[in-house]
């Protein structure tokens, strides 16, 4: 692959990523609607999956270009960067796949980024407060046994948790 073609592919990926980020940033966010029949599973925004896919693709293209070239010593930094991008993309996609939040009638269930499933019953809530983090309101819930859940109040419907804690 020639140097010009590689630069063109990298620039196209960066432009696509910037376009997706700008379009997602100006999109109006509404929290998930609560269903009276039972809990619904709320996931991370699709932006995380898109960022993970772009990182994965960029890492793959860079790895393809750097590992197939005959100039091995000169491309060592590009090889390292391609592996880092590829691993960051895989980790972002795994985090998007693993994390969820279920606000039920008796408890809030959630799975962490690393895949551990946790549950905080409404009767075991020790503290529930809202804090501002970088201009975004977050709900922080702590249970009596030390579990902590912190989520964006505008993105996720936490009305049942706030009502049970209040």
Q: How would you characterize the overall build of this protein?
A:
There is one protein chain. A hairpin with a 5-residue loop joins strand 3 (107-111) and strand 4. With 166 residues, the chain is an alpha+beta fold. It folds into two domains: 3-98; 102-165, Pleckstrin-homology domain (PH domain)/Phosphotyrosine-binding domain (PTB) (PH-domain like, Roll). It has helices at 3-25, 46-67, 76-98, 159-165, and strands spanning 41-43, 100-103, 107-111, 117-121, 125-133, 136-143, 148-152. The longest helix has 23 residues, at 3-25. Strands 1-2-3-4 form a four-stranded antiparallel sheet. Helix 1 (3-25) packs antiparallel against helix 2 and helix 2 (46-67) runs antiparallel to helix 3. Keywords: Membrane, Transmembrane, Transmembrane helix. The chain crosses the membrane at residues 6-26, 46-67, 79-96. It comes from Microbacterium bandirmense.
* Cα gyration radius (Å): 21 Å
Helix count? 4
Number of domains: 2
Number of beta-strand segments: 7
Summarize the structure.
The protein is an alpha+beta fold and 166 residues long.
Task: Describe the SSE topology.
Blueprint: H1 3-25, E1 41-43, H2 46-67, H3 76-98, E2 100-103, E3 107-111, E4 117-121, E5 125-133, E6 136-143, E7 148-152, H4 159-165
Antiparallel strand pairs: 1-2, 2-3, 3-4, 5-6, 6-7
Helix pairs in contact: 1-2, 2-3
């Amino acid at each position: 692959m020639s140097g010009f073609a590689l630069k063109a592919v990298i620039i196209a990926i960066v432009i696509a990523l910037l376009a997706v980020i700008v379009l997602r940033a100006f999109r109006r966010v509404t929290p998930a609607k609560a269903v009276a029949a039972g809990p619904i599973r709320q996931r991370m925004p699709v932006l995380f999956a898109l960022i993970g896919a772009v990182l994965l693709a960029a890492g793959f293209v860079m790895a393809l270009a750097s590992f197939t070239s005959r100039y091995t010593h000169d491309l060592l930094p590009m090889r390292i960067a391609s592996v880092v991008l590829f691993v960051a993309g895989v980790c972002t996609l795994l985090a998007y796949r693993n994390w969820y939040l279920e606000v039920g009638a008796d408890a809030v269930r959630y799975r962490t980024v690393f895949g551990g499933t946790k549950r905080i019953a409404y009767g075991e809530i020790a503290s529930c407060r809202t804090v501002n983090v970088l201009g975004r309101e977050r709900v922080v819930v702590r249970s009596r046994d030390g579990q902590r859940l912190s989520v964006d109040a505008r993105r996720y419907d936490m009305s049942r948790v706030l009502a049970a804690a209040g």
